[in-house]
Design brief:
By secondary structure, this protein is an alpha/beta fold. Helices cover 36% and strands 21% of the residues. Strands 7, 8, 9, 10, 11, 12, 13, 14 and 17 form a 9-stranded parallel β-sheet that branches. The protein has a 4-stranded mixed β-sheet with strand order 1-16-15-6, with no helix packed on it. It has a 4-stranded mixed β-sheet with strand order 4-3-2-5, with no helix packed on it. α6 (214-226) links the parallel β10 (202-207) and β11 (230-235). α5 (179-197) packs parallel to α6 (214-226) and α11 packs across α12 (335-349). It binds zinc ion (ZN). Zinc ion binds next to loops.
Length: 399
């Protein structure tokens, strides 16, 4: 079902609904002509160039490969008991992340690599052809570099495009003297090593009460930007602490979560180029409120939908079809807006606009035919829509 495109040229055709992600409304059947892994032509089949091989996708709904712009795959261990306790009233603290850190540090390279590879395969088999992958369960120089290296090794045999993000500032490890002392290690020791080895394309910080302060976040992200890394943030998830304003001020590519965002925060984002990446999965599991998706869209903010699959607050790998459904239901987006957020929006959140998340001339030929005839199925069959075919072409590591 999942396979790379042939190297030279190839054509897909169909009579069903084609979302680019805006709906194709030309004559049927449509055709997408692929050359050297990129979309070379798209339009009515009658006008298409000749092709060596043509695959007919029939009446299936066809979309760009989905883009999951926020995941944390580099972990071992199981925290389902913690999720149950939290849903029974226990508070959320950084202790859960530290439990995963201990289990991850204790595992072998083979165990961690194989866990990551399984998660990437689950994403691809659910129609996600681009996956952002964060470190952040190592929290020491050696362990963070190991996680980034193993993400790269795990990605090699999987036909998905992987973008790596350094998240050394995910939680303060128990051996650190203080948040400030650990932030200095992240900025002065870890980041230069990450940049020197080309181990990541982005740097992220969990900026929130009980995690990293605004001052520590700014210190880390300024060093990251100076070293040539892209920057992104976990912002305004648990408390409205001003993370969104900081993300915009620093020119972050994306501000993620935003469950506590208010009207002023929406206006700040609307005046910026920072993408709002919304994560309805953990928002539901955490019962901490929902991000203001409707207000963000109405204000003209570029919105991405991602899964935030991780060890402790949302464990769904291959959940992007569900995430689209959640966007279109509890986040009050139209289904087409939700598909756009999970494709074009996700690509923008990773600095990959024009290359990923769109069926357009020049874009990578990442194309999914679904077991559905209309995108409404993502809402109607919440989590139940699966790919019939996945074509992935522009895959590999971003760095
Ligand atoms: Zn996250």
């Amino acid at each position: 079902m999942v396979g790379p495109m042939p190297p030279d040229q190839f054509q897909l055709t169909g009579r069903g609904r084609l979302l680019r992600p805006e709906p194709y409304d030309g004559p049927l059947p449509w055709a997408i002509h692929v050359r050297d892994g990129r979309i070379a032509w798209i339009g009515a089949r009658a006008d298409a160039p000749d092709a060596d091989a043509v695959t007919d996708l029939g009446e299936a709904l066809v979309t760009p490969g989905l883009v999951n712009a926020h995941t944390h795959p580099a972990y071992l261990g199981d925290r389902s008991d913690e999720a149950a306790a939290r849903l029974a009233g226990a508070p959320y603290t950084s202790g859960g992340i530290l439990r995963t850190v201990a289990a991850t540090r204790a595992g072998s390279d083979d165990e961690l690599r194989s866990a990551i590879e399984g998660r990437l395969r689950a994403e691809l088999e659910a129609g996600t052809t681009t996956v952002e992958c964060k470190s952040g369960y190592g929290l020491s120089l050696d362990q963070e570099l190991r996680a980034l290296r193993l993400i790269g090794e795990a990605a090699a045999p999987v036909a998905a495009h992987v973008v790596r993000t350094f998240l050394g500032a995910h939680a303060v490890p128990s051996e650190a003297a203080s948040m400030d002392a650990y932030s200095a290690v992240v900025a002065e020791e870890m980041l230069p090593a990450v940049a020197a080895t080309g181990a990541a394309e982005f740097c992220d910080v969990f900026c929130d009460r009980g995690f990293f302060s605004l001052e520590a976040t700014e210190r880390i992200l300024r060093v990251a930007a100076d070293l040539g890394l892209g920057i992104r943030m976990h912002a305004d998830q648990l408390t409205r602490g001003g993370g969104t304003e900081l993300a915009v001020r620093l020119g972050a590519t994306s501000a993620d979560h935003l469950e506590q965002l208010d009207v002023a925060g929406v206006a700040i984002l609307a005046g910026s180029r920072t993408v709002a990446t919304l994560l309805p999965g953990p928002a539901i599991v955490m019962r901490g409120g929902l991000p203001p998706a409707r207000a963000l869209l109405d204000a003209g903010v570029t919105v991405a939908l991602a899964s935030d699959a991780n060890a402790g607050t949302f464990g769904g790998w291959g959940a992007m079809p569900l995430v689209i459904g959640l966007g279109a239901t509890i986040l009050v987006m139209s289904v087409q807006e939700a598909v756009t957020a999970a494709t074009v929006g996700g690509a923008a959140a990773l600095g990959l606009a024009g290359r990923k998340g769109a069926l357009a001339v020049g874009a990578d030929a990442d194309i999914v035919a679904w077991d559905a005839e209309h995108e409404g199925a993502f809402a109607l069959r919440l989590g139940g829509v699966r790919p019939a075919r996945v074509f992935a072409s522009g895959y590999g590591l971003s760095t």
